[in-house]
């Protein structure tokens, strides 16, 4: 039987990165500062980021995020969609599927090699 890990498109790298995530309300152009969350990543990949959450977020919620990579790799403005939200092992996590065609998506993708592994 296939597991979620078997179905992943890109390898995950366990990295704790600082990021801010803003929920994007459907059809709204103005953002309320209260919609911004300051989070830590659980892991990252070429096409997604797993984050630790203080409360659940519905799947299919569009998000805007700023990720500050460690080791002076820079800060990236990215867009994505909540793909899943669950509490494995007692920690509330969400998976964000990134839209690499928007904002700094291509710059983000440049940190990964052709096999999807993070490269320096």
TrEMBL record:
<dbReference type="InterPro" id="IPR009875">
    <property type="entry name" value="PilZ_domain"/>
</dbReference>
<dbReference type="GO" id="GO:0035438">
    <property type="term" value="F:cyclic-di-GMP binding"/>
</dbReference>
<dbReference type="Pfam" id="PF07238">
    <property type="entry name" value="PilZ"/>
</dbReference>
<protein>
    <recommendedName>
        <fullName>PilZ domain-containing protein</fullName>
    </recommendedName>
</protein>
<feature type="domain" description="PilZ">
    <location>
        <begin position="7"/>
        <end position="102"/>
    </location>
</feature>
